[in-house]
Design brief:
By secondary structure, this protein is mainly alpha-helical. It has two domains: 45 residues, no CATH class; 127 residues. Helix content is 71%, strand content 3%. Strands 1-2 form a two-stranded antiparallel ribbon. It is globular and about 50 Å long.
């Protein structure tokens, strides 16, 4: 019964976002305990306290672009569109056009890049983030960056990773940079 209910949630996600959920289905069918651990992890990835949706999705999308998982990038874009983020802003995030986005989004994009590069210059940006959104906001962005790295890695490890996947925003196709 529990597998049935969890599978229904997975199928709802597949329909809602037009996303390939085969890896989730395989985890669920193979090992229920492992699936519960995975499902708990998705809860961490959706944490969004204190940070507006623009910077939040900037961190998520830029992380996924760094990890080279086209389907995951598309999922994040679809979620950003569902959250009513401006498609032009999403396009600028994808293209890494930091001079074309609001300063808090550009700050988050730079912060994300430095975190992913393990660059010690991140501390200066961390202080700016804390001054904008407090420690809770820093935790939110840290959760987003770290957890969004895991999904492509998990999919690649399980044999479901894909690259060179087209990215669409309202039918327009983009190449991440």
């Amino acid at each position: 019964m529990i597998r049935f209910l969890l599978n229904k949630q997975i199928q709802d996600m597949k329909s809602r976002y037009d996303y390939d959920v085969q890896y989730m289905e395989d985890i669920l069918q193979s090992n229920l305990a492992a699936f519960f651990k995975y499902w708990g992890f998705t809860s961490m990835s959706s944490h969004n306290a204190q940070v507006p949706i623009g910077p939040l999705f900037a961190a998520r999308i830029r992380t996924l672009i760094n990890e080279d998982c086209g389907p995951c990038i598309q999922l994040a874009i679809n979620m950003a569109l569902e959250a009513e983020l401006d498609p032009a802003l999403i396009e600028n995030i994808i293209k890494n056009q930091q001079d074309m986005v609001p300063k808090e989004v550009a700050l988050t994009m730079r912060f994300t890049e430095l975190v992913l590069a393990h660059d010690p210059d991140v501390d200066e940006l961390k202080a700016q983030i804390v001054s904008l959104w407090g420690q809770s906001g820093l935790i939110t962005l840290s959760f987003s960056i770290s957890t969004y790295r895991v999904f492509p890695t998990l999919k690649y490890a399980l044999g479901y990773g894909k690259t060179c996947h087209k990215i669409e925003i309202n039918k327009a196709v983009y190449k991440p940079s």
